[in-house]
Structure formats: structure tokens, C-alpha cells
Amino acid sequence: MLGGLGLGVLAVAGCSASSAPSAATTQPVPRRGGLPHDVTAAVELGSAILGAVRVIARVGSTYPALVRRLHPLVTMHEVHVTTLRQAVPGYVDRATTSPAPVTARNQAAALRLVADTERTLHDRLIAAAIAAESGRYARLFGSMSAAISQQLAAMPA
Amino acid sequence: MKAIDALQAALAGEHAAVYLTGVLGAQASSSRQHALYAVLVDDYREHRRRRDELTVFIHDLGAVPVASEVTYDLPAQMTTAAELNDAALQLERRIAKTYGQLVENTAGAQRRWALVALNEVAVRQVVFRGPPEMFPGSH
Hints:
Chain A has 7 helices and no strands. By secondary structure, chain A is mainly alpha-helical.
């Protein structure tokens, strides 16, 4: 019974942290059957993610000491955008406006700026998941939102 | 998969999670492993809350909520704090997939609830010192 339900205590016992599947094997790419609404949402989200990456890059150029700490966020966003590109036939990156120059007065303020940007992106992903017409796109967007939640939880204060 | 089947699968998962987190909490020492004990107790409460909410959802749909098993197979190693933590982490990873499935197979308010649950269990993985994943709750 447990095995078919996707949660088995026995199976839990057989797993270890090192056996977690890699990102390459867990990308829930909905290659086909994406509805026009969802395709549009995916492209818009890709643009929003690139905007968030630019904010991080701007913060990193202002505060080089933060580059290493923010690297996992950038990696996650790059993987997400790659997945969106693979999911949407004929995907073309939309032009994004350059973010406003970072005005954070110190590193702590810069980290708050990044966190606020990530929370905004997270909320957009949740909204897109709720509105998605395809369950596969809903799961993809929802999974991406959960990835941001994890990054925010792991982000050093 | 129909929404009701995904809801039943999530409920079955939470039944197992409530059982396992209860055992893990019982194994942990509240005095010697205070931090771990506290997060396990919190985890137990969260799984129990979601189990109860899923039970209501399914009942409101006119279906009979799947019952808990009498017992579940337990991890072989549950002695040290690291083993207890690892068992809890693996549990959260697995139930995240169940909630990913629920997001995929529901709509409207049920999907919204599933998204909140998915995000919550994803964060619990970090609480149990799991590294962030690229796609929590995916296949």
C-alpha cells in the first residue's frame, strides 16, 4: 500500500541524504500539452526570474562579499529558466528592463532586498500555479516556488 | 489521476507521517536532544493538522477518507540524533512528492491548499538540514 502512495516509512528507511536525485533527474518538464495560457505564463515567469537574477547580480557587484552566499540562488534560477525554455516550444526570452540600481545602504539591507525580490517572485509562481490550466505546469510552477522557499529558509541572515 | 485519488494518496501519506514523526519524537530525548525533539514535535503537529484537513476535504467530497494502517515499517536505524534527523528528512522529501502530485491533480482551492502544503514541507527539509533542491516535490 505504501509504495503506491508515494510515501512509505519502509522506503524512508532505505533512503539517505546522498541518494537524493539530482536536479537533472527531477526536472518536471511538461514538454507537451501545454496550453497557450500556461505557455504565456511560463515565458512571463522566465522573464521575472531573469529580473531577479539581475537584482542579485547588481547586489553582488555592489557587495562582492555577498556573491558566494547568493550563488545558490543564482544557480537555482538558472536551472529554472533552463527548464522553462525546455518546457515551452519556441521559447524566446522576453526583454527585461534593467532593475533600478541597488540603493541598499549595507549588506544586511542588500540581503533584505534580495529576499524581498525572491518573495515577490515566489508569490508570482504560486499565482501562476493556481491559474495554470495544465496540472503539469501547475506542478512545475509550484515546485519552483517551493525551491525559492527552501532558499529563503537556508539564506543566512 | 482524479483529484479524489490524489487527496486520498496525500491523506495516506500524512497518516504514515503522523505515525513516523510520533515514533521519532518518542525516540528523541527532550533533555539531551532538545532542539531535535522540538522540531520533531512541531513536525508531528503539522502532519497531524494536514491529516485532519485532508480528512475534512475528502469527507466534504462525499468520499470515505482512507484509514490509517495499523502499523508501519520503521527505519532500521533510529538511535542517534543524526539517524532520527535523517529519517525525518527523508519523510519530508517523500511527502513533498505526494503534495506535488496533489498540486498537479487538483484545481482551485484544493490546489491552493496543496501549494501551501508543498511549500511547508519543502521548508521542513531545510529545518532537518537537507540541502535546498531545484524542484522540491517533483517526480
